[in-house]
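Lab meeting prep.
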Amino acid sequence: MDVERRPGRRGRVARGPAEDSGPVAEFARRLWELKRAAGDPSYDRMRDEYGALASKSALSAAARGERLPSWETSWEFVRVLAAGVLGGDEDEVRHEWRGEWERARDALTAGAVTAPAPEAAPERSRRTAFVLAGAVALVLVAALVFVFAAPFGSEPAAPAGDASEFVADVTVPDGSEVAAGSVFVKTWEFRNAGTVGWVGRYLVRAGSFGNPGECATPERVPVPQTAPGERVRVSVEVRAPDRPGHCQVYWKMADEQGHILLPNTRAVFFSVRVI
C-alpha cells in the first residue's frame, strides 16, 4: 500500500491500494476514496460517532484491499459516510454500492475459477495442485452446509417456485436509537413472490453481533399464512441490552421443523443503536 505525508497528522497516512491490482483492491480503493471525501474520519469515529455497526478492525481491513469484505461490513462503511456524512439518499447509495460489491465478488470468483495453471509445470506439481484444489472445494462445500444447516439441525429444503420479496421496514428503521434495557417491536413487511403458499412458517434467528451484549429475542416468530402474491407483516419483540452500544440480528425463513426454506435469499435483519 502506498503512503503519503499529510499536514496535521503524525507519521505516514495510507494512500489506499492501487486500482490496477485486482477487483478487491479496486473496491477497497473506492472505499478509501469515499472516506477521504467524507473528511477522512478515524475508524473509531466512524463507529462511535457515526454509528457504523462493524468493528474498527473490520472497517480498517475493508479499505486495505487484502480481501473482499462482507457486504454487511461494506454497507456499514458506506452507509455512515455516503449517506450519513455526505447526505446521499440511502436507497440509492445502497443500490449503487451493492452493485460495486457484487461486481468485485463476481470478478474475484471468475478469476479464481479461470486462472490457468503454468504450462511448464511438472506432472507432480500439476497432480498436487489438482488434489489441493479438490480439497479446497470440499472445504468450501462443507462450510456452506454448516452455515445453512448446522444451526437448524437439517439441510435446506426449498419447495420449487418458493420466493420471498422484502417490502419494507415497518417499524424501527435500521440505525434507530433505543434506550438501554427497553423493549421494542420490530416489524417487517414481505411479499410472497412465488407460487407456493406460506403455511406453518417462521422467521428464525440466524445470527447477530453487537456490544456490550446482544438484543434478546425469541429464537423464532411465526409468519402468518400467506398466499402467493399477498403481503404479510412479521413482528418480533426485542429487549435491548442494559448498556449503551449496538446490536444487529439476522433472520431467515424456516418451516416448523427448522429447515431453512430460502437458503439463497439474503437474511433480513434489524440494527439499532442502544443509548
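Slide two material, second protein:
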Amino acid sequence: MKPNLTLLFLLCIPFFSNAQGIDIPVTSKTKLNFSGMLQSQFNYSLDDDIDIKGLHHSGDEQVAHNSFSVKRARLQLNATISDRINAVILVNFGDFTGNPQNKVLENAFIKYSINDYVNFQFGQFRPQFGQEDNYPVDFVQSIDYSNQYYLFGGNSWQSFQIGASFSGKIKDIAVPIEYSIGVFNGNNRNTVDNDDGKIFPARLVFGLSKETHLGISGGAGKNMGQKIWAYGLDLDYKKQLNEKWWVKFTSEYKQGINSQEFFNQTTPVIPVSRYAMRGIYVLPNVSYSFKNTRLKDLEFAFRYEYLDADFKQSGNARQTYIPMLSASFAEAYAIRVQLGLMMDRYQRNIPNTTSYHTNRVICQVQARF
C-alpha cells in the first residue's frame, strides 16, 4: 500500500499547492520536451527442454516455450533550463514486469555545456566506455545490446551508473577527437555507494574519416578494497553507397576484471585479478531505403559474439549468432518491426542452467513518440 499512497500523494501535490495559494515559479525560458518508446516482444523457443528465458529443464515439468512481453516502456523528460544547462529524467516502466528493485529509473542527470570542448554531467547516466554507449537501445542495429554490454554493465563500466563526467570534442583538426573521463560509485544504478572506492572510466574516439571511427576505452578503480580495471577497442564504419543503399559495420573488443563474479564467492581464495572477462562481437548491417511508400527502410543484420566471463579459470565461453530482418515504417525507427533468430552455443552445456545451447525466434515491435 505504501507505494500506492506515495504515488497518490505525488499526483495530488498540484491540487494541494493551489489550495494553499503556493506559487511555484518556473522560468519562462525553460523548455520541456517529453518523449517515449515502447518495445513489445514475442519469444518462441525452438527447443523442447529450453524455456523462453533460455533456462534448460531436464525434468518433466511444464514450461513456457512462447510468450508475449513488454521489453521496454520508456518515458523521458528533457528540460532545457538555459542555453548551457539541461536536465534529463528517463524511466522504464517495463521493469515492473519483473523485479523492479534498483531499476525503473535509468537516466537522471544535469548537463552543463560551456562549448564543444567543455561539458560536465552529474547524476545517473551511462559512462562513455564503448560504442554501445553512444546511442539509445531503440537505434540498436540488432535485437538488443550485446551480451558484452550487459556483462561489463554489471561490473559498472557500462549501462546506467551514478557519478560525474567531463567530455568534449575537437573538430577543427585533421583527425577529429571526442573525449570523456568520469568518476562513478561503481555500484550500478539506483544504489547508494557502500564503500569509498570509485571507478574512473575514460574514452577517446578518433574520426579517421567521415565514414570510419576508432574508439579506445580504459578505466581503473577500487571496489570494496579490490583493484579493478577494464579496457576496450571498437571500430565503426558507415557509408552510403547511393541514395538507396547503406552499409554499416561495428566491431568491439573488451577485457577486464569480473569483480561481480569475485564477490559472488562466499569465501574467495583466489585474487580478484584471476577473475577476468573478455569478449568480442562484429555486426555488419545492410539497409535499403524506399521512397514514397509506407515502408521506409528494410535492413538485414547479423551479429556474431564471443564472450567468456571467466576465461582465466574454468570459463564457459558463449558464442551467439543473431541473423535479423528489420522493417521501418517511419523515419528514425519511429515504427519498427524486427524478426530475429538467436542461437547460443556454449563451450560446455550445464544442465538446468541458462548455460545451455538455445535457439529462439524473437519478433520485436517498436514505437517511438
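Talking points for slide two:
The longest strand covers residues 31-45.
The helical segments are 2-19, 147-154, 259-263.
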